Amino acid sequence: MTRRQLSEAAMRAAERCIPELAARSGREAYRQALAATGGVMVKTSRGLLVERRADGSSRVIKTLPPGKRVKIGTVLFKRAKPSDNAV
Fold first, then answer.
1. Residue 34: φ, ψ to 5°
2. What gap in Å lies between CA 11 and CA 25, rounded to an integer?
3. Averaged in consecutive runs of 10 residues, what is the pLDDT profile of the chain (87 residues)?
4. pTM of the prediction?
5. Please, are residues 60 and 45 in contact by the beta-carbon 8 Å criterion?
6. Pair 53, 40: CB distance under 8 Å
7. What was the pLDDT predicted at 84?
8. What residue segments make up the domains of the chain, in order of their start?
9. What is the dihedral angle through the alpha carbons of 58, 59, 63, 68, rounded to the nearest 10 degrees?
10. Is 80 helix (H, G, I), strand (E, B) or coil?
């Protein structure tokens, strides 16, 4: 297979398509997941945990607590909880 070098302009044009391709791929993955799970998915939407079905219907499962805003670049660590079985 021969490799062809792209010009800078051609590379920039191709890169401009990436967000649209990613969005389209995400929507397609969502549709495939609905089909694979028998038409039910659980996802978050506007602070709610929602069950969505392939037929377009949805049901609110519960209201979620507000998220915490963090600055870009902040590193978060998960602390180990003390074990109830500690000796």
1. -60, -45
2. 21
3. 81 91 92 82 87 87 85 85 64
4. 0.48
5. no
6. yes
7. 62
8. 8-63
9. -30
10. coil
Amino acid at site 49: L
Burial classification of residue 44, based on how many CB atoms lie within 10 Å of its CB (0-12 exposed, 13-18 middle, 19 or more buried): exposed
Tokens at 9, concatenated: 């302009």
pLDDT of residue 87: 52
Q: How far apart are CA 74 and CA 68, in angstroms?
A: 12
**Alpha carbons 42 and 32: distance in angstroms, whole number:** 14
How far apart, in whole angstroms, are the C-alpha atoms of residue 82 and residue 37? 36
Which regions of 4-82 does DSSP assign to beta strands (E)? Answer: 40-45, 48-53, 58-63
